[in-house]
């Protein structure tokens, strides 16, 4: 299979291209994944997340989980899962979750709640363009 690079930037994640079949409901096209992850990566950067940092992913819906992991990787951070039987990820300063899962998670992590109204507002007005070297350098 060939790879699809959706923008000419160093931080674009090469994704496996689909076979050319129409995208089914509940699936995310490679270009959409890239754009959505760019927006979420910008939110993480504005909250102070940086390259090399561990970011907990406690996101149940599959599409949101894939986008969250791609966003974390775009900024050079390390996605981690909350540990089995515990509500926090070791050494994670930031985390991504949804309202449904937030109540079960520790308060010691700065949680970005994806379906929170203020998060959605910031997400919708942020750029979906590839992250620039200037943005990434500012956090490395």
Describe, in plain words, how this protein is organized in 3D.
This protein is of the alpha/beta class. Helix content is 34%, strand content 14%. The protein has 5 helices and 6 strands; from the N terminus they run ββαβαββαβαα. A 4-stranded parallel sheet has the order 4-3-5-6. A two-stranded antiparallel ribbon has the order 1-2. It is globular.
Q: What layout of secondary structure does this protein have?
A:
Layout: E1 3-4, E2 15-16, H1 30-46, E3 54-58, H2 62-74, E4 78-80, E5 94-97, H3 99-102, E6 110-113, H4 117-125, H5 133-137
Helix pairs in contact: 1-2, 1-4
What is the general shape? globular
Oligomeric grouping of the chains: single chain
The total of beta strands comes to: 6
Q: Largest sheet, order of strands side by side?
A: 4-3-5-6
Strand/helix succession: EEHEHEEHEHH
Largest sheet: 4 strands, parallel
Return the structural class: alpha/beta
DSSP helix fraction: 25-40%
Distance between the termini: 33 Å
Gyration radius, in Å:
15 Å
Mean pLDDT: 78
Q: Can you tell me the residue ranges where pLDDT is under 50 for at least 5 consecutive residues? A: 1-23
Beta-strand share of residues = 5-15%
Number of helices: 5
């Amino acid at each position: 299979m060939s790879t699809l690079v959706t923008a000419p930037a160093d931080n674009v994640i090469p994704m496996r291209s689909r076979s050319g079949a129409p995208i089914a409901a509940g699936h995310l096209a490679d270009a959409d994944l890239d754009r959505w992850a760019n927006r979420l990566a910008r939110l993480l950067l504005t909250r102070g997340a940086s390259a090399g940092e561990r970011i907990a992913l406690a996101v149940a819906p599959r599409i949101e989980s894939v986008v969250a992991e791609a966003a974390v990787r775009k900024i050079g951070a390390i996605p981690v899962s909350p540990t089995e039987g515990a509500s926090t990820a070791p050494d994670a300063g930031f985390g991504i979750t949804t309202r449904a899962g937030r109540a079960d998670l520790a308060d010691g992590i700065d949680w970005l709640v994806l379906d929170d109204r203020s998060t959605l507002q910031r997400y919708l007005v942020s750029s979906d363009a590839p992250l620039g070297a200037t943005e990434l350098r500012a956090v490395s």
